[in-house]
From TrEMBL:
The keyword Repeat does not apply. Pfam families: CarbopepD_reg_2, TonB_dep_Rec_b-barrel. It is found in: Cell outer membrane. InterPro entries: Beta-barrel_TonB, Beta-barrel_TonB_sf, CarboxyPept-like_regulatory, TonB-dep_rcpt-like. SUPFAM superfamilies: Carboxypeptidase regulatory domain-like, Porins. GO terms for biological process: siderophore transmembrane transport. The chain crosses the membrane at residues 38-54. This is TonB-dependent receptor. Keywords: Cell outer membrane, Membrane, Receptor, Signal, TonB box, Transmembrane, Transmembrane beta strand, Transmembrane helix, Transport.
Length: 899
């Protein structure tokens, strides 16, 4: 039979770049082209796992009640050989057969009886050929060596609401065994047969104590009640080795430092972590360890969101009142994630309260929002609905002139419990921005309209005492309409003559099917594996030139859609080697297809941590990541002119590999300190080709406007926290270097990346005046960005861009950009100081109030310079001449009511 061949090349077939693996056999049927069968494969594997696991329960698990309550070891062994049907073989003299022992009446299995009568003896037991063979051992029999091991498992939720308690710790003090609940509140813990006391704890909740008598696999759910004395700033503690290098942020954790003009944005809590910056408030995303905003994978309940911001990055789409938790990764990437080089932001929202109706409403200068949740049927079906809308612009314009913003978020979620083992969730989100920035002194105008739509259906299923599965179908859509007006001036008079506008429209629709299995093999080994099939269509570069800014997407020239599909498989194992050492090796495999281009990627992931003592830990991580989507931005068009494009043979996927080493110190309830050093190498990062314009609606030419190169970043990060009854302090510092290199830029020499910020410092403090009043302050400092400006921009007179159609309406507006250097300028350092006061009087009956007043940017530091185009009538040259800053000193006040 001919061999089965699997090609691991960059083009999906045999090539000089690829490698060929050959397999011979009767049933060599697996191939990359059969990736739609990955879900069938995963299901078969999981359905066969449970019977295989059951087969592991051997002779020691067999029920057996001895007629003897007291006797010699020899008497008990004779009773077993006579009545159990099992043969116990042993050599005389390896233990005293005449020693008297007592067996309790509650002993129900053969293993438990042998453990009792042989306690303290220097023996060990071997199961072979349906026999138990006792042989000498240099040490005494361990306390639970022969006891049957059973699993206690279940769901930990919040009392009343039944909201799953992610990261709740389940601990059994006598055996010193424990585990942590996953994001769905599921836990599984193997314990020896007998009586046990479980302790369940979670930050901000009262501990739960449960006594169990374990003689078989047993499901035990638990409900936790919130503490009434929760401190204003919560710092989560960890027991044992760190399970990953990510950060988990829960509502309320950094509230005093995330207030933007009265709107409390949980995503802004990421800005005070080292290595995460957003110095310019009006940019379109987070900047993590020197990466661009497109290198961050943002997931909302498992759905990719391509622009999760309002007001050009000043505010996120996440409403704090609907938030359950944020998991953020920048140094360690679990194998289930793929598609982002710099970070993963995994956002989970509430399922809805299963017991009673309640909610929260917030009103401030920037927006008004409300969230309501409650049961449609108690303990069976719950809904959560959240809506937020910006306030009328005249309120904001009292402090921010010429800035007009209109946005909304609508989020609806239904959770239905089919039974104890099955839960269905339906999730729908819609949000949109309309923004206009006008600088009256130069008569410039930028207008932006963008939005996200998302819908998903999820199913979570408890397979058994050791396994759990989640499956979801997700749909996400993003569109972006951008317009920029520039003015032509008369050479002689200097007066404006005419206006023209550039307008672009792009969109991306994304569909995926995802499933993940979680298997607790033992208390020390957890296996996670799964797969995903994704299909997407991009509509790029739809553009027009007009006298005014376009507002209707249907008026744009249509371009050829760019469809692609991607298949992923992943697996990882979490291994705890003793009480100090934890390993998590993993692999992520992806296969990408766009037209005739195929790319397969193996991405190894590795994380390890070693606990030096209860307070000191060391950890290390290695990750390879692949990203198939590229975000390209016109360098001189104005704000947020972003276009997503897929990888092609000439525009290869972006890849990175990162090494991270760290140390952490934590003194319970008082001090914590973390230090990281990292090195990241990137290839096939994109840059806007020098002298090119993306206003070409030709299907074959857009790739020529983008070039790829290499990048690297490295640095040192520090984060320290001090908590107390009155004063809480948070300090983070990052020292970093970020570089790029392109063959056609800067003569091929390396140059600093545009987000090269050498020093970034964040200092946040909260002082608790009394039980109802707090004062908070936040100081942020960063050295300036580097940037390039073209000295001249002029029309493409000699057809250097090869416009093939003379009648093309856009040909008079294709420009050549002339630069004398790359990133030859650096902006001034950025420094911002925010101050706020919070008043939260004691709750009266059903209602609770919280008042917050403050000043954003107390010292009026500039936050962003937006550059515009202006030129002359006769020379038709256009020169960068103007700049404007946003968000100066802005006071605010907000009121929150929860009920």
């Amino acid at each position: 039979m001919s061999p089965f061949r699997l090609y691991l090349g960059r083009t999906g077939g045999p090539s000089a770049e690829g490698q060929t693996l050959a397999f011979c056999g009767k049933c060599a049927t697996f191939a990359i082209v059969h990736f739609p069968h990955i879900f069938l494969w995963l299901a078969i594997f999981s359905l066969t796992w449970m019977p295989l696991a059951a087969q592991k329960k051997g002779i020691l698990y067999r029920p057996f009640h001895s007629h003897l309550q007291k006797g010699t070891i020899g008497d008990f062994l004779t009773d077993i050989n006579t009545r159990s049907g099992i043969t116990v073989e042993y050599a005389s003299g390896i233990f005293p057969l005449d020693k008297e022992v007592t067996a309790g009446s509650e002993i129900a299995t053969l293993g438990a009886l042998l453990q009792t009568i042989l306690a303290g003896q220097h023996v060990k037991a071997i199961e072979k050929n349906d026999k138990i063979i006792l042989i000498p051992s240099p040490g005494p029999l361990p306390e639970d060596a022969l006891l049957p091991q059973y699993s206690v498992y279940g769901i930990v939720g919040e009392e009343g609401s039944r909201e799953p308690m992610a990261d709740a710790v389940v601990w059994e003090p006598a055996t010193r065994k424990g585990t942590v609940c996953n994001i769905h509140g599921y836990y599984s813990l193997s314990l020896p047969e007998g009586r046990h006391r479980l302790e369940i704890t979670h930050t901000g909740y009262n501990p739960v104590i449960i006594d169990i008598d374990l003689h078989w696999d047993q499901r035990t759910d638990a409900a936790m009640t919130p503490r009434e004395d929760i401190p204003e700033v919560i710092v989560s503690g960890r027991k044992g080795p760190k399970r990953n290098g990510g950060e988990t942020i829960v509502p309320g954790q950094y509230d005093p430092f995330t207030n933007f003009l009265g709107e409390n944005d949980a995503i802004r809590s990421l800005y005070i972590l080292p290595g995460v910056t957003n110095v310019t408030d009006a940019s379109s995303g987070l900047l993590v360890r020197g990466g661009e905003q497109d290198e961050n994978l943002f997931l909302l309940d498992g759905n990719p969101i391509f622009n999760p911001t309002h007001m050009l990055g000043a505010l996120s789409i996440v409403d704090k009142t609907s938030l359950k938790a944020i998991q953020f990764y920048k140094s360690d990437f679990p194998s289930r994630f793929g598609g982002g080089l710099s970070s993963v932001i995994d956002v989970y929202t509430k399922d809805g309260n299963m017991q009673k109706w309640g909610g929260e409403t917030n009103v401030n200068f920037l927006a008004a929002s409300t969230t309501i949740e409650g049961p449609l049927k108690k303990d069976r079906t719950a809904v959560m609905a959240s809506f937020r809308h910006s306030m009328p612009n005249f309120v904001l314009n009292l402090f921010e002139k010429d800035f007009f913003s209109n946005f909304y978020d609508a989020h609806f979620k239904v959770t239905h419990l089919l039974n104890r083992n099955n839960k269905l969730t339906m999730n729908v989100y819609s949000g949109e921005d309309n923004l206009n920035l006008q600088t009256s002194d130069q008569n410039l105008n930028n207008r932006q309209r963008w939005g996200n739509r998302m819908a998903s259906i999820g199913w979570t299923h408890v397979l058994g005492s050791q396994s759990f599965v989640t499956t979801s179908v997700n749909v996400s859509h993003y569109y972006n309409l951008a317009g920029f007006v520039y003015t032509i001036y008369n050479d002689s008079t200097g007066l404006p003559v005419t206006n023209h506008s550039f307008n672009t429209y792009s969109s991306i629709s994304h569909f995926n099917l995802r499933t993940q299995f979680e298997v607790n093999v033992t208390n020390d080994v957890t296996l996670k594996y799964g797969g995903e099939a994704a299909f997407a269509k991009i509509k790029p570069f739809e553009s027009k030139v007009d006298s005014t800014i376009a507002i209707d997407p249907s008026t744009f020239q249509r371009s050829v859609p760019l469809p692609y599909h991607e298949f992923d498989l992943y697996a990882e194992s979490e291994i705890r080697a003793g009480a100090r050492f934890l390993l998590r090796p993993g692999i992520h495999f992806s296969s990408f297809h766009f037209r005739d281009f195929a790319f397969n990627s193996f991405q190894p992931r590795f994380y390890m941590t070693y606990r030096l003592s209860t307070s000191h830990q060391l950890f290390a991580a290695y990750n390879r990541m692949t990203q198939y989507l590229h975000l390209v931005t016109n360098p001189s068009l104005g704000i947020n002119s972003d276009l997503w494009v897929p990888s092609t043979p000439s525009l290869q996927p972006e890849e990175s590999q990162t090494v991270d080493l760290g140390y952490s110190y934590k003194k319970s309830g008082e001090y914590s300190l973390g230090v990281d050093v990292y090195w990241k190498e990137m290839k096939n990062v994109t840059n806007y080709a020098e002298g090119k314009s993306f206003f070409i609606n030709t299907d074959s030419l857009w790739e020529q406007n983008i070039e790829t190169g290499k990048g690297r970043s490295y640095g040192f990060e520090l984060m320290g926290e001090k908590t107390g009854q009155k004063l809480n302090i948070h300090l983070s510092y990052a020292l970093s270097w970020n570089w790029r290199q392109f063959d056609q830029v800067n003569h091929g020499r390396e140059f600093p990346f545009k987000y090269d910020r050498r020093h970034v410092i964040n200092l946040a403090t909260t002082y608790k005046v009394d039980k109802s009043k707090d004062i908070s302050a936040l100081w942020m400092f960063a050295t300036g960005d580097v940037y390039s400006l073209p000295e001249r921009i002029y029309p493409d007179y000699d057809n250097a861009q090869q416009i093939l159609h003379p009648g093309d309406l856009l040909q008079n507006y294709r420009f050549i950009y002339h630069f004398s250097g790359v990133n030859q300028y650096r902006t001034p350092p950025y420094s911002r100081f925010d101050l706020s006061v919070s008043y939260h009087p004691p709750r009266k009956r059903r209602f609770g109030f919280n008042w917050t007043a403050g000043v954003y940017n107390v010292f009026g530091s500039p936050s962003q310079y937006s550059y515009g185009l202006a030129g002359t009538l006769h020379s038709r040259s256009i020169i960068i001449v103007s700049k404007e800053k946003l968000f100066n000193i802005t006071p605010y006040i907000s009121m929150t009511v929860d009920y």
